[in-house]
Amino acid sequence: MTNWSAPFIGAGDAIDASVVVPGSKSETNRALLLAALADGPSTITGGLSSRDADLMRAALAQLGVTIIDEDGAWRVTPPAVFAVPDAPIDCGLAGTVMRFVPPLAALNGGRTTFTGDAHASARPMGGVLDGLAQLGVAIDAPNIPFTQDASGGLSGRRVEIDSSGSSQFVSALLLSGARYPDGVEVVHVPAEAGASVPSRPHIDMTVQMLRDRGVEVSTPDEVTWQVAPGAIRAVDQQVEPDLTSAAAFLAAAALTGGVVRVPGWPVETTQGGAAIADILRRVGAEVSLDDVGGGHGTLVVRGTGTVRGIGAVDLHASSELTPVVAAVAAVADGRTVIQGVAHIRGHETDRLAALVAELGAVGAAIRETADGLEIEGRGAGVLKPALLKAYADHRMAHAAAVVGLVVDGVELDDIACTTKTIADFPGMWSALVTRSGAHG
Known about the structure:
Elements: E1 4-5, E2 16-18, H1 25-37, E3 42-45, H2 51-62, E4 66-70, E5 73-77, E6 89-90, H3 95-105, E7 111-115, H4 126-134, E8 138-139, E9 146-149, E10 158-161, H5 168-177, E11 184-188, H6 200-212, E12 217-221, E13 224-227, E14 237-238, H7 243-256, E15 259-266, H8 276-283, E16 286-293, E17 296-302, E18 311-314, H9 322-331, E19 333-339, H10 351-361, E20 365-368, E21 373-378, E22 386-388, H11 394-406, E23 410-412, H12 425-436
Parallel strand pairs: 2-15, 3-14, 6-7, 10-11, 18-19, 22-23
Antiparallel strand pairs: 1-23, 3-5, 4-5, 7-9, 8-9, 11-13, 12-13, 15-17, 16-17, 19-21, 20-21
Helix pairs in contact: 1-2, 1-3, 1-6, 3-5, 4-5, 5-6, 7-8, 7-9, 7-11, 9-11
């Protein structure tokens, strides 16, 4: 595999670009799953074309769902009865596939095997599999690869699980819960006292998308979610842009003193990635939402020549932003302390350890804490060229690209991993340099 040289923007050059960001990974895969569970056909437009979405579509097809691509719009037709796959379902490294699909597959009344990439076995699965076991599904292993057997049927309603490792554990059971005989009640019972559920905006997204389809969902307290049994109405879905993927492009404006515009930015959203707007404002950029209409606008970030550390920032609810925020902090002037993200040790890789290793390789002063990172930003001028590792993690690749904009000579060992959420990240990123007048 050939190393990727990160495009570099020198002094005197500045980005001036509009970036059309692909659809939200989180919303796309939820929309696909709910369309597969619905009471009739529906269409998804603006869905993300990426490896994660491809894996979700392939998994649903193995379970008997028909998905036809009609000029970029996906027409999804649920089966009368979910199929028992002849072959294992490949989850790749996609958390939404390995966690969301097993609860749906439990409706097929048979045995389903799940496999994935080499790193997939390191991703936590306990909350989902514990919940399914409490509902009567036999599980033969605690992680990928595993086989589940739903031939005994589903019984019961209340499940108690530890969801401190991922909000996806809760979402996974809620998404299919309406189709269970008695619905489902999910209660977060942490193994470690006081450990909360991370990335709650993702659960809010799940709940809202269920309610949009006529599902009765109640949240009597902060650790309980109840889904009543019943039909899931077929609803056509327009997917929002992926605001977390937009973060790297917007950060580029802040770091180079340029301007980046992202159209289609929702005025109101359940995506945790929306927090990047306030973070970049704290860094020193000018941020505005222009041309608002129909619930969307164009988010505009203008760099001011100031890139400062922001002190403490709690990313518990938007932890997917951690790699890009850490990259910005590494080239800023001043201290940044990222808090509330201990759970990202169980993401595509141990992101805290990976960020310490790779940002440290370019000379950043960074250390790992119990729940995050401390970064003493000393400006880009003190950083040095390095070959960085991606760990098969798209967000780590985004972080390397951000640093490489202002540190000449940064390379990455695996840019292909970015296809997880953006089909052509290298092309889109290189276009920023072209727009700056630099040559990379």
